[in-house]
Amino acid sequence: MHEWALAESVIAAASKIAEKEELKEVKEVIVKIGELQQVEEDILFFAFEQLKKDIFRKTKFQILKAMTKLRCRVCGTEWSFKKQSLDENNMESIHFVPEVAHAYVKCPKCRSPDFKIVEGRGIWLEEIKGAK
Amino acid sequence: MVDPRLSIIDNRLKSIKRIIAVSSGKGGVGKSMIATTFALALAKKGLKIGLFDLDFTSPSTHLILGIKNILPKEEKGIIPPIINNLSYMSLVYYSGELATPLRGEDTSNALIELLSVTKWDNLDILVIDMPPGIGDAVLDLIKLVKKIEFLIITTSSELAFHTVKKQLILLKELKVKTIGVLENMKINKMKTIKTETEKLGINFLGEIPYDKTLEESIGDCNKLSTTTFFQIVDETLTNNNIV
After folding, report:
1. How far is B63 from chain A (nearest CA, A)?
2. How far B13 CA lies from chain A's nearest CA (Å)?
3. Which residues of B touch A36 (CB under 8 A)?
């Protein structure tokens, strides 16, 4: 239920934006989750439903998915990360802290662990819609 | 696009009274050994203490504590296991003993991730073992952890103190609380470090003599607690009213 902690952070961030924009009600929150961290969508939805209160009581949560794009900083190769390429324990570790991918993933061309996570790392608050 | 994790960090740290980073501008001065001993000595006084290894690319506090095959529990976040009376958190739970080369951006992201999902118990003090230098980890902590205090370690070497002095000046300019400077691995009787530290208006906390036998207690906290090193770290805390 590490997703619960991420859901709490989304609600906290959305609350700050709503306060700043003086929203009386938040109608929709759109979050983007990266494939690399493999956030469980069902658990995230469940956590959102449980955490909904005050200005979020009627909020619709939408989850978009982002593919993981990695780029080797040595040879420039870009590739899409597929979780099937690693064993379950290593994927579990990346689920908790995506940066440990640098311990388990190598550039498919030159085998360097020096790559940039260009897209699809973790969780982002994409958009918040509300009424004043 | 907003990174939501930044909004929850204050909340995650609110149950911790004080957060002390054991840091040095220079590597190899004994930060990890002092951070771990400091945490163990505080816990021995009956305080609720956490230890967080922030040296992501070269973690070593787990070796000093003798930790093997332990994973944190998941309960609406990550719960640091209690080991030798310390709530203990390290990237090592996830990276194992593999090399984990991280650039600055990755270090910051890993730190933000752990700060936003780790659910610390009510703690009197969280001790942080810092990586060497005054780069990303120091700057991120100053930015993200409002109540951060620094405990600075140096050796007697001019080479170490040369960089440490820059760190002390930087912290002073940024108005970050610096508890003081501890001189580790002392092998001479010179008072240069004490004089130079006090000239900057910063507390000089004391000297810890070089202990050739300390290596033998790595991985064994009971043995560590019987060393002169442990005793001096403990006395330094008490004499300087750090806690």
Report:
1. 19
2. 13
3. none
* B219, B225, B231, B234: CA torsion to nearest 10: 90
pLDDT in the model for residue B49: 98
CA-CA distance, A19 to A15, in Å (whole number)? 6
CA B230 to chain centre: 16
Q: What number is the average pLDDT over the span B35-62? A: 97
Residue of A2, A14, A114 with shortest CB distance to B117: A2
Alpha helix segments (H runs only) across B58-180: 61-65, 92-95, 104-117, 136-144, 158-173
Query: Which H or E element spans position B34?
Result: helix B31-44
pLDDT band at A1 (very low <50, low <70, confident <90, very high): low
pLDDT reading at A66 higher than 70: yes
* Of the candidates B183, B241, B237, B181, the residue with the CA atom closest to the CA atom of residue B208: B183
CB contact under 8 A, B117 and A96: yes
CB pairs under 8 A between A and B: 109
Average pLDDT rounded to a whole number, residues B127-153: 96
- Give me A83's structure tokens: 């979780």
Mean pLDDT of A16-33: 96
Q: Which amino acid is at B137?
A: A
Q: Which amino acid makes up residue B200? A: L
* Complex ipTM value: 0.93
- Mean pLDDT of the A90-99 span: 94
Give the chain B residue nearest A1 (alpha carbons).
Answer: B76
Q: Which two tokens stand for residue A19?
A: 């306060």
Distance from CA of A75 to the nearest CA of B (A): 17
